[in-house]
Amino acid sequence: MCRKVSHLEFLSVVTFVVCLFFLPFAPWALANTYTVNDTADNCFPAPGRICLRTAITYANSNPGKDTIILPAGTYVLSAAISTTKEDNNAQGDLDILDDLIIIGAGAEQTIVDGNSLDRVFDIYNDTMSMSGMTIRNGKAPTGDMGGGGIRTSNGTLTLDKVIVRNNSVEGTGATDYGGGVGNNGVCTIINSTIANNQAYKGGGVSNNGTSIAVFMSTISGNTDIVAAGGMLSISNTLVVNSTISGNSSTSGAGGIYGFGASTIISTTITNNSSTSGSDGYCNNVSGTLSVKNSIIAHNGDHNCCNPASVTSNGYNLEDTNTCGFTNGSDLINSDPKLASLQNNGGPTFTHALQNGSPAIDAGTSIFMFPNDQRGKKRPCGAGYDIGAYEKCSGILLFIPAIIANSK
Ligand SMILES: [Ca+2]
Ligand SMILES: [Ca+2]
Ligand SMILES: [Ca+2]
Ligand SMILES: [Ca+2]
After folding, report:
1. Residues spanned by the domain of 61
2. What mean pLDDT comes out for the span 217-222?
3. Whole-number pLDDT of residue 394
């Protein structure tokens, strides 16, 4: 017996068929995965070969958020620039012109090398995530909005388990910033290392965009001239479970210089220096810092430059008394007894707390962040430790850390 098809049912069937017909042409339905199989810079057009630049060209022209798989290997950029500041992915830097995911095989296994020709990645108004790779030897030209390793123009960038190192920005102009990462949008850095980069302003990272957030990461050994060796940020800044160490500036802040609202939690800022500026953390007159459960110690002769702009939310430690740590749970004039920056397990280097450190068991729990920088569950022992590292006695089982500065 036949059932009469209702008008609504008929319309549903027609809609389904029409959708099926147009599906191949709908931009949201076409996201592809490209697996790179050749370490050369470019091999377009070459059937069967997919180089990194080739894959990005495909992904740029294919509407939708594609994925590029980048296997183990060293990918050296070699498409020399004949047109300066080329932005169509033909030469020099790799220009990302559409939403994209790039997945490497691990930061030690997958290396993208800018060969000092240009910056490495140039990201426009797109959502970009990168994981499991090293980005090195990029060099952004003078007056091109910086970003020696990576530049974003107005997009959203997420780095996870990425090493950005030995990149630089040429020139000494107002926009020659961000030796490692130059963010002009929204940037999130997780489980990553920003090391040994250089620029006129913001040696490791510059944030001139909407916001920057750094989680479980290390910013170390970066240098600049006038703003901040480690990180320059003009807007909202969040740093959690991270280490800012051994960065230097000639006349700016050695570690971090903030112009916006900054929040620092369970972080260790140490061994940063500035020849004539502030050494550890510094706020511009417009900047504010809220800080909790963090160590700011052994940064030249000034851990902080502007204590009136600092709000302590408790459980902070300073080896002198320049940061305005006036909360009852703060420790001032206390040496945290930090070991050297090294592999203590986890994906990034950290400063371990040595025996007898006053930071041990003197901290507090942090909502939503149950682990330390390495991924070790807190607390160990009688309580939570101050800073990025939780000291535990006994045998720890960790995957060895990436040797960030060894290559
Ligand atoms: Ca695409
Ligand atoms: Ca470009
Ligand atoms: Ca380019
Ligand atoms: Ca503890």
Report:
1. 29-137
2. 98
3. 57
Q: Give me ligand 2 centre to Cα 125, in Å.
A: 13
For 192-203, what is the mean pLDDT? Answer: 98
Query: In angstroms, what is the span from residue 140 Cα to ligand 3's centroid?
Result: 11
Counting ligands in written order, the one closest to the CA of 53 is: 3
How many whole angstroms from 24 Cα to the centroid of ligand 1?
A: 14
Residue 45: cis peptide before it, omega within 30 degrees of 0: yes
Nearest ligand (C-alpha, residue 94) = 3
Among 121, 137, 153, the domain boundary falls at 137
Q: How far apart are CA 136 and CA 211, in angstroms?
A: 24
Report if residue 175 sits inside a domain: yes
Kindly state whether residues 103 and 168 are assigned to the same domain: no
Rounded distance, CA 179 to CA 176, Å?
Answer: 8
Residues 183 and 306 in one domain: yes
Based on the domain organization, do 298 and 181 belong to the same domain? Answer: yes
Does residue 10 lie within any of the structural domains? no
State whether the Cα torsion 107-58-181-92 is positive or negative.
positive
Q: Are residues 130 and 155 in the same domain?
A: no
The ligand placed nearest to the CA atom of residue 390 is: 4
Same structural domain for residues 234 and 347?
yes
Question: Would you say residue 313 lies in a domain?
Answer: yes
Neighbours of ion ligand 2 (CB under 5 A): 87, 93, 95, 122
3-state secondary structure of 233: strand
- Ligand 4 centre distance from Cα of residue 361 (Å): 4
Residue 304 Cα to ligand 1 middle (Å): 45
| Total number of domains constituting the chain | 2
- The tokens describing 201, both together, are 């302003």
Instruction: Please check whether residue 341 lies inside any domain of the structure.
Output: yes
The mean pLDDT of the chain is: 91
SS3 249: strand
Question: Residues with Cβ within 5 Å of ion ligand 3?
Answer: 86, 92-93, 95
Q: How far apart are CA 49 and CA 54, in angstroms?
A: 9
Judge if 253 and 375 occupy the same domain. yes
47 plus 185 within the same structural domain: no
pLDDT at 83: 67
Top-confidence residue, 178 or 79: 178
**Above pLDDT 70, what percent of the chain?**
89
CA of 40 to the centre of ligand 1 (A): 21
**Per-residue pLDDT at 399 exceeds 50:** no
Distance 211 CA to ligand 4 centre (A): 32
